[in-house]
Amino acid sequence: MGTTRVMLCCGAGMSSGFLAQRVRAEAKKQKIDLSCEARSESQVPQFFGKFDILLLGPHYASQLQNYQELAEKHGFKTDVIPQSIYGALDAAALLEMIKKM
Q1: With 0-12 CB in 10 A as exposed, 13-18 as middle and 19+ as buried, what is 94?
Q2: Are the beta carbons of 2 and 33 closer than 8 angstroms?
Q3: Would you say residue 15 has pLDDT above 90?
Q4: Contact between 16 and 9 (Cβ < 8 Å)
Q5: Distance (Å, rounded) from C-alpha 61 to C-alpha 26?
Q6: What integer pLDDT is reported at residue 11 of this predicted model?
Q7: What percent of the chain has pLDDT over 70?
Q8: Average pLDDT, the chain
C-alpha cells in the first residue's frame, strides 16, 4: 500500500498546520507512510483527488454531512477531529484515529 494522504481542514489552516506537523513527526517515528497537510476550509475543493482522508476541525462538525456527500463523490473518507485531540494537538491520538479509518 502506498502513502496515505491526509488533509486537515480548519478555518485558516494555521492551528491545523501545527497538528499536521506533529502528525507527520509521529508517523515518521512509528514508520508509517503518511503525508499530512493542513488547508483552510475554502481551499479543500481544489484538492479533491489529492487526499485519501479529510479530517475536519471540531468547529466544522456541523458540516460533516456535507463533506460525507462530497467524500462519496470524490472517493475519500472524512470525519471530525474530536476537540480533545484538536485542542491538545495530540498527534499520537490523531494518528490512531487515522489508522482506524
Answers
A1: buried
A2: yes
A3: no
A4: yes
A5: 25
A6: 79
A7: 96
A8: 94
Q: What is the pLDDT of residue 72?
A: 96
Nearest CA to 55 out of 3, 99, 2, 1 is that of 99
Residues 6+ away with beta carbon under 8 Å from 2:
33
Q: Are 89 and 22 in contact (CB under 8 A)?
A: yes
- Rounded Cα gap, residues 101 and 99, in angstroms: 5
Q: How many residues in the chain?
A: 101
Q: Which residues pair with 35 in a beta bridge?
A: 5
d(CA 65, CA 26): 29
30-77 pLDDT, tens digit per residue, is: 999 999 999 998 899 999 999 999 999 999 999 999 999 999 999 999
- Name all domains of the chain by residue range, CATH numbers in brackets: 4-100 (3.40.50.2300)
How many angstroms separate the CA atoms of 86 and 56, rounded? 10
